[in-house]
Structures are given as structure tokens and as C-alpha cells.
Amino acid sequence: MKNRRLSGNAKYSQEDSPSLEPKRQPARIVAGHSIEHPSSLSLPMVGLFRFGQIGPFLLFSRETWRKLVKAGKAPAPIRISNRCTVWTAAAIHEFLCDPINYRAQVVANIDEALK
User: Fold this and answer.
1) What is the DSSP string of the chain?
2) Is residue 22 part of a domain?
3) Residue 24, domain member (yes or no)
4) Per-residue pLDDT of the chain (115 residues; tens, 9 = 90+)
5) What pTM value is reported for the model?
6) How many distinct structural domains can be found in the chain?
């Protein structure tokens, strides 16, 4: 678009008019699935997941998720190392079934969490 000033009643010429077509963004790939087709997303019933894998299924940010975990309103994480935190598939599915009424269970160690 050229930088020129138009009067209040002036119309855009064909070449200057803003496109009404939505800009097509490339599809994001998360956990091997395309975000462009949400129906293709599915969360396996077994396994351990990092936040990047469960993020597309949540309606809030990582920080909100962290606050919910801290308050006991989301599944407790399992710390594998200093920089690797995971959640069990069973706990995530339980949370996603009823996020409003979910309350985290306290586990003593990883063996209890994986049962």
C-alpha cells in the first residue's frame, strides 16, 4: 500500500484496498499433529506428557496452568529432572473431563503416580 493521505470521503483504489481475505498462517505442528485441523488432535490414554503436548488441549496459558497446579486444582507434575516436568495421561484425562471440580491427589513418589 502506498503512503498517501486520503480525504474522509475518498475511497481506496483497487490496488490500495486492504484485503478482506484472512491471512493464511502456516499450520503449527504440536506433538506430531497439525493445529489447523483440531479434530486430528488426540491425547493418548497412557504415557507421560510435557506441557507442550497438553497445551493445545487447554484453554489457558502455561502460567495459569502453573497456578492451578500450585493450588491443587490441576494434576500434580512429576519432576524427572531439574528441567523436565511431566504429567501422567490418566491425570490429564481426569482433569479434562471435569476441570472445574478437579482436585489433585497427593502422591508420595513416582511409583504411586504411575499406578
Assistant:
1) -------TTPPPPTTTSPP-SPPPPPPPEETTEETTSGGG----SSSEE-HHHHGGG-SS-HHHHHHHHHTTSSPPPEEEETTEEEEEHHHHHHHHH-TTT--PPP-SSHHHHT-
2) no
3) no
4) 555 555 555 555 555 555 555 455 444 544 444 445 445 568 899 999 999 999 999 988 999 999 999 999 999 999 999 999 999 999 999 999 999 999 887 666 666 666 6
5) 0.58
6) 1
